[in-house]
Specification:
Blueprint lengths: L1 E9 L2 E8 L6 H9 L9 E7 L5 E7 L4 E2 L3 H15 L4 E7 L2 E9 L5 E9 L2 E2 L8 H8 L10 E8 L3 E7 L7 H9 L7 E9 L2 E8 L3 E3 L3 H13 L6 E6 L2 E6 L4 E16 L2
Parallel strand pairs: 2-3, 4-6, 11-12, 13-15
Antiparallel strand pairs: 1-2, 1-17, 3-4, 4-5, 6-7, 7-8, 8-17, 9-10, 10-11, 12-13, 13-14, 15-16, 16-17
C-alpha cells in the first residue's frame, strides 16, 4: 500500500499533512524521518489529521524532532487547506479538535489555485510558565557572556500559553538578535521548553517578529507566536486590537477584539505518495 501525504506551508513554516482514519503507531518515527531536510522530504513538522466517520477532524502535530505540540496556527491553516483540497472545495468552514481545544477554521480561495487564505480561531492567551531563575534575562546574558537583558538585545519579556508555552521578548530590532543562540538560551530556563519570539513595533499596529520554536528551531513564521505577540503588545498599549505581524516568511493578521483570530495564507506545495516497502 502507498501512503499519501501533502506538503503545505504557512509563510514558509512547512508541514507534511497526512489525512487518515487513525493515528499511526509510528507517527513519531515518521515525523523524524520524513521531516529531515537531508534524508527525508523536509518539513518543520508532520500533521496527522484523523478523519472521523462523520467527517470530523482531529489534529495531531509532531515537530521535526518527534516531540508533540498541542496546536499550531500555521499548521491549522495548512491542515484546513488539505481538507478543503481533499473535499474538492475552495471555501470551507471547519472545526478541528486539537490538544488545546477545538479551533474553528475558515478557508477561502484566492486567484492562486495553490494558495488559500485561512482564518483560525486561536483560543485564549493565558499566563505562561515560570522560568527556573528569578532574573531570566540576567541569567541568559551571563550564560552568553554578556551583562544584562539589554546587552542581549531584550528589553522585557512575558511568558504566555496558548496551548503551547511562549516567551514574548520585546527587542529594538529582531534582525539584530542571534535567534539561534538567544532563543535556545531562553528556552532552557523553562522545564517544558517554550517558543521564544523576538518582537518590535515596526509601525502603527504593526509588529516585526522572529522566532525560535520548541522542537523545530528557527522557523520563517510561527502562528501561535504571532498571536501571543499581538495580545501581549496590545496589553502593553503598543498596538491596537488588529495587528499585522511581519515575519521572515510574510505577514499574518492577529485580531484580539473578540475570540482571538489569526489570518494568513496556506500554500499547497506538492502531493506525495510513498510506497510501503
Amino acid at each position: 500500500m502507498a501512503v499519501r501525504y501533502s506538503k503545505h506551508h504557512g509563510l514558509g513554516n512547512d508541514f507534511l499533512v497526512l489525512l487518515t482514519d487513525s493515528l499511526p503507531l509510528d507517527a513519531v518515527e515518521q515525523a523524524v524521518a520524513l521531516c529531515d531536510r537531508r534524508t527525508g522530504l523536509g518539513a518543520d513538522g508532520l500533521i496527522v489529521g484523523v478523519v472521523g466517520a462523520r467527517g470530523d477532524i482531529s489534529m495531531h502535530l509532531f515537530n521535526s524532532d518527534g516531540s508533540s505540540a498541542a496546536v499550531s496556527g500555521n499548521g491549522l491553516r495548512c491542515l484546513a487547506q488539505a481538507v478543503a483540497r481533499r473535499r474538492g472545495v475552495g471555501a470551507l468552514e471547519l472545526d478541528v479538535a486539537t490538544d488545546a481545544g477545538t479551533r474553528h477554521c475558515s478557508v477561502r480561495a484566492t486567484d492562486d489555485r495553490r494558495t488559500a487564505i485561512v482564518t483560525v480561531e486561536m483560543g485564549t492567551v493565558s499566563a505562561g510558565p515560570t522560568p527556573d531563575v528569578e532574573d531570566l534575562l540576567g541569567s541568559v546574558a551571563a550564560e552568553l557572556g554578556a551583562t544584562g537583558g539589554e546587552s542581549i538585545g531584550v528589553r522585557r519579556y512575558q511568558a504566555c500559553d496558548i496551548g503551547n508555552p511562549h516567551v514574548v521578548c520585546e527587542v529594538l530590532d529582531p534582525d539584530e538578535i542571534a535567534v539561534d543562540i538567544v532563543g535556545p538560551a531562553v528556552e532552557r530556563h523553562f522545564a517544558q521548553g517554550a517558543n521564544v519570539s523576538f518582537v518590535t513595533v515596526s509601525g502603527p499596529d504593526r509588529l516585526k517578529l522572529r522566532v525560535w520554536e520548541r522542537g523545530a528551531g528557527v522557523t520563517s513564521a510561527c502562528g501561535t507566536g504571532a498571536t501571543v505577540a499581538g495580545q501581549v503588545f496590545h496589553s502593553w498599549g503598543l498596538v491596537g486590537l488588529r495587528t499585522v505581524v511581519q515575519m521572515p516568511g510574510g505577514e499574518a493578521v492577529v485580531d484580539v477584539s473578540g475570540p482571538i483570530t489569526l489570518t494568513g495564507p496556506a500554500t499547497h506545495v506538492a502531493d506525495i505518495k510513498i510506497a510501503d516497502d
